[in-house]
Design brief:
By secondary structure, the chain is mainly alpha-helical. It has 8 helices and no strands. The chain has one domain. It is globular and about 70 Å long. It is found in: Peroxisome membrane. This is Peroxisomal biogenesis factor 11 family protein.
Length: about 230
């Protein structure tokens, strides 16, 4: 491993989001391993189940205070158009509900609050999460569409910008598109996980579906947060 990679890993793991993506990887890898060995090696499966539960609870602890992120994002980046501003408000409102009730759910799971509230708190948290993700996904598709339109303008024969400026603008648009595609992948994956809490069903609640969705979300977030 090169020194540059080590330096980037140190920077990545110094971020709260970096630690969260690493522990999320542990959580969903252990879920998949538990499912795979449950029938043949029950003792080993139980160990991985404990790792999954511990990882999930520790992630909730890491995210304490995260509900304030929505306020900060709205203050710093309200959106360039009325449509994007509305989508930002709806998306971040859903996410703030998610984080707020996720904190309470953590307290219920560790025994500080009565455990009987856990199911209701989980439902409200997942509903707010899925509500927010829908609008985040819509906003990202709108912004990618705008990026494609700008890209077509830049490559038009009659465009007046200098060649060097065009190349740099195209590079930025392409980087932004990749990041938004990673965001969409993560949000769709997390939406599936949230739907498993809101309306349990054989597809969303299957260990493989949850495991793959969790890893897609974790690794998409890993890519987006990795130092450039």
């Amino acid at each position: 491993m090169s020194n540059d990679t080590v330096d980037k890993l140190v920077i990545f793991l110094a971020k709260r989001d970096g630690i969260d993506k690493l522990v999320k990887t542990f959580q969903y890898v252990s879920k998949l391993v538990h499912w795979h060995v449950e029938a043949t090696k029950p003792e080993l499966a139980q160990r991985f189940k404990q790792w999954e539960v511990a990882s999930g609870l520790s992630r909730k602890a890491f995210r304490t205070g995260r509900f304030l992120t929505g306020f900060n994002l709205l203050r710093r980046n309200p959106g360039a158009t009325p449509t994007l501003r509305l989508l930002a408000v709806l998306a971040n409102a859903g996410e703030m509900v998610y984080w707020s009730f996720d904190h309470l759910l953590w307290l219920s799971r560790i025994g500080t609050l009565d455990a009987k509230f856990a199911r209701r708190l989980s439902f409200i948290s997942a509903f707010g999460e899925s509500f927010g993700y829908v609008f985040f996904i819509i906003a990202d598709f709108i912004l990618m569409k705008q990026g494609l339109a700008k890209e077509r303008q830049l490559v038009a024969p009659d465009h007046e910008e200098k060649y060097k400026d065009v190349e740099e603008s195209l590079r930025k648009i392409k980087v932004d598109r990749v990041m938004r595609l990673m965001a969409v992948a993560a949000n769709v994956a997390d939406l599936i996980i949230a739907l498993a809490d809101i309306e349990p069903n054989p597809f969303c609640n299957h260990a493989v579906t949850l495991g793959i969705s969790g890893l897609v979300s974790a690794w998409s977030g890993w890519y987006r947060n990795w130092p450039s």
